[in-house]
Every structure is written in C-alpha cells, then in structure tokens.
Amino acid sequence: MDTNFLGGMRLGLVCAERPLVDGLAAAPARGVPVTSASAIVVLAFATIVHLGLIGGMRADVMAVFLQALVLSSLLAAVPLAVLWYLDRRERETPWLFAAAFLWGGCIATTLALPVNTAFFLFVDAIVAQEPAVREMLGPDAAM
C-alpha cells in the first residue's frame, strides 16, 4: 500500500513552497508584507500622535490622565482575563494578544476623538445660546 495516499487523496508537496490542500495546490500568500508594513506605519503614527497629546498636558490634567489610565487598566483586566480563558483551546502568543488589544485601543481613541469634540462643541453652542441652561448649570458651564 502506498503511504502517499489517504482516502483517495494524494498527500505531499507540489513544490517546496506550495503544499497540497484538499488535493489542490495552495496559492502562495500575497500581500502579507504590505499589510504588516501598513499596520506598523499606522501604529507608529498613532503612537506619535498620542505622545504629542500626552506631552502637551498641564500638570493637573496629567494627574487626572494618570489616575484614569491606572483605573481603566485595572478595569480592563476583567475582560482580558475572560478573553484569555476563552482562547485556551487555540492559544495565541502574548505578543499577538497585546498587539490586538493595543490596536483596538488606537482605533477606539481615533474614532472617539472627533465624535467627542463635535459633541462638546454642540453642547457648548446650546449652553451659549440658552440663558436658562447657562443659569441652571452655573458660570463655568460654557467650555
């Protein structure tokens, strides 16, 4: 009996780079280096933007930022532990797990920044136009 056959399908390689998949030669992976390079460029840009924002903070704002960072990191431990538990059957490397988490944080921040800015400008315009709202909220209500 020939050991290269299993269930009527030939096992082996068509050439060194292209293994047989379901009896057909697998196509070589394309675009992986470009995708990786693009992701690195986007992450580098996001890092530069975030460091610029952090570096321009006043001392009191920096203190609030650091407190929020510590609290949010502690709160993020719960969903991270749940995800790590759910990934127990096909475990990813810790580096890939961290990269996915940080990538999600960059995307969330990038999307939240313009939305929050537009919302606060809208609320500021309403507070500036409505004297009753300004009186109810106090003199520091306008941004």
Taking pLDDT < 50 over at least 5 consecutive residues as the criterion, the unreliable ranges are: 1-16
Terminal residue distance: 82 Å
Oligomer category: single chain
Number of domains: 3
Report on the structure:
The chain has 143 residues and is mainly alpha-helical. It contains 4 helices and 4 strands; from the N terminus they run ββββαααα. The strands form 2 sheets. The chain has a two-stranded antiparallel sheet. Strands 3-4 form a two-stranded antiparallel ribbon. Residues 1-16 have low confidence and may be disordered.
Keywords:
two-stranded antiparallel ribbon; 143 residues; two-stranded antiparallel sheet; 4 helices; 3 domains; mainly alpha; 4 strands
Produce the secondary structure layout:
Layout: E1 5-6, E2 9-10, E3 20-21, E4 24-25, H1 32-55, H2 59-86, H3 94-129, H4 131-137
Antiparallel strand pairs: 1-2, 3-4
Task: Write a short abstract of this structure.
By secondary structure, this protein is mainly alpha-helical. It contains 4 helices and 4 strands. Helices cover 66% and strands 6% of the residues.
